[in-house]
Amino acid sequence: MPYNKTKAKVFKRITMKDIADELQLDRTTVSKALNGQPGLAEKTRKIVLEKAEELGYQKDVFASGLMTRKNQILGLVVTDLSRGLFGPVVKQFQKEARRNNYGVILCNLENTEEGQANDISQLNILRLQRVSGISFVSNATVKVSPQYFSEFIDDDIVFNTVEHGLQLDIADQIQFNHRKAGKELTQHLLSLGHRRIAYLTYSPSLQSYRSTQERMLGYIEAMEAAGYEPLTILENERYSKTFGHEVQMAYEMIRKQWPQANAPTAVIGANDSFALGMLHALKDMGYRIPEDVAVAGFDDLYAEMGVPSITSMRMPADEAGQLAAKLLIKRIKQKEEDYYPFEQTMLDYSIVQRQSTNKKINR
Fold first, then answer.
1. Sequence-separated (6 or more) residues with CB below 8 Å from residue 274
2. CA–CA dist 137, 172 (Å, integer)
């Protein structure tokens, strides 16, 4: 069928001039409104922004970069997206960036030692793209040589960290309060009448994440403060980087190490996959959940997959993603005379109570 130009729908990119013509304003006024610059009445700014949204205006971040030597783009560096743990961070980071007319380049640094050197080279790509700022999530920080951070500073690229593995005094930092989460989840079970509460995790020698260590310490603190003996069930031989394998490991540990005499009435898994493995094992051993044993975990990633669904401490990933983008943009727009100290923010978990702990006991 021959191409008919008269029927073809032509896409027209909306420009600042289009907005200015629609409102009968000069282009400078429109530019100030869209870029959040001072010297403009709030009523005028609102009118311009509403018209821009109505017409479908999208800022050309690359064209802006030709003038400022910085593109209106943010970098987000993560590790091991396959686990899904920080998926909400990515989603909310991108959402906040878009709301402020920034684009996002996502870099995934693999955990394999073999690919590490090649992955680090992605950071040079971010620099070549003239990004204005970068957020490093979790172990992405420890995979980066300190020289890169110095070079970012030299290139006037701001950066911050989410759940970082290094102590940095040259960046805003966002951390999760894992110890408080472990303490609050244990206190929740204590409030339901449980006194024999077990905790399943890796042995300290295998714990490579701060979250794993801190959650267990919070559990121990809560048990000791209430006057009860902590009971830990530890994996001493293997460490898994996949949730599926952790489910199997937890299943095997419970079947092998579960105390038959004076058995716990509640058990906490170091994460949701451990909790799922425990749930399957206990049911196969003839226990009713939660009538005989309550089960709980952390992260709230796969807790709803359990039957019954599992109570879990929800990691503040959504909040962290949004805040990371906000902090970057705030630093980017900061003038030298308005400098303020780097911020350290601690975010709390929230408990999501489900069927696996919804019974009070009288024992």
1. 200, 201, 246, 247, 249, 250, 297
2. 12
Instruction: Read off the pLDDT of residues 151-181 as tens digits, 9 standing for 90 and up.
Output: 777 778 889 999 876 666 788 999 999 999 9
Q: Give Dmax over CA atoms of the chain in angstroms.
A: 84
**Host H or E run for residue 79:** strand 73-79
Q: Residue 171 in contact with residue 161, Cβ under 8 Å?
A: yes
Radius of gyration of the chain (CA): 26
Task: Specify the DSSP element, H or E, that contains 200.
Answer: strand 197-202
User: Would you state the structure tokens that stand for residue 86, as one six-digit string?
Assistant: 């920080």
Residue 306 · residue 356 · CB < 8 Å: yes
Instruction: Work out the pLDDT band at 98, boundaries 50, 70, 90.
Output: very high
Angle in degrees, CA 142, 145, 150, rounded to 5: 120
Q: Which two tokens stand for residue 283?
A: 């049911």
- What tens digit of pLDDT does each residue of 254-277 get? 999 998 888 999 999 999 999 999
Take residue 93 and report the two structure tokens written for it: 């980071």
Distance of CA 117 to the CA centre of its chain: 24
**Bridge partners for 234 per DSSP:** 201
Of 196, 358, 195, 191, nearest to 291 by C-alpha is 358
Q: How far apart are CA 18 and CA 194, in angstroms?
A: 67
Helices (H), 170-271: 178-191, 210-225, 243-257
CA pair distance 161, 330, nearest whole angstrom: 15
Q: Please tell me the distance from the alpha carbon of residue 131 to that of residue 145, in angstroms, as a whole number.
A: 19
The DSSP H or E segment spanning 75 is strand 73-79
Q: Answer yes or no: is pLDDT of 3 > 90.
A: no
The strand pair at 311-314 and 350-352 is best described as: antiparallel
Question: pTM, whole model, 2 decimals?
Answer: 0.77
